[in-house]
Amino acid sequence: MSQQHAAGPFDVTVSPQGQPEVRDDVTTGRMAIDKRYHGALEGSGVGEMLSAMTTTEGSAGYVAIERVSGTLQGRTGSFVVQHSGTMARGQQALAISVVPDSGTGELAGIAGTMRIRIEERQHFYEFDYELPDL
User: Which of 23, 83, 72, 19 is closest to 48 using CA atoms?
Assistant: First the structure.
């Protein structure tokens, strides 16, 4: 296995699922995620996100599970990533990791972490991963 790097843009649509709930000044909700990855990873991502927003501007949290399907630098299959993000008064912390043993097809055995960057409303991914040799 060798360390690999993939990067590129992606498009994302987040759709509320049901009505958000407000309790004790915290709004919680559930959203559907629909992504289209481009570049070294060509494919789609679908998943669900749970979020919590506080009344303090810039403070919130979310978790999500996303199934990514497509072709990663010439290898076809799917894998699942787990998101965990927080914002504390605008300071962001985000961890996105491949769920162990979730890879299928030519992506079986994949492991890695992903970063997301947003520039002028455009989303980009940076994916550091390892795959067994074919």
Answer: 83
pTM value > 0.90: yes
Q: Are 67 and 45 in contact (CB under 8 A)?
A: yes
- Residue 17 token pair: 């699922």
d(CA 129, CA 19): 37
Structure confidence at residue 120 (pLDDT): 92
Each residue of 58-99: pLDDT tens digit? 999 999 999 999 999 999 999 999 999 999 998 889 999 999
Query: Using CB atoms within 10 A of its CB, is residue 21 exposed (0-12), middle (13-18) or buried (19+)?
Result: exposed
SS3 61: strand
Amino acid at the residue 87: M
Structural domains present in the chain: 11-118 (2.40.350.10)
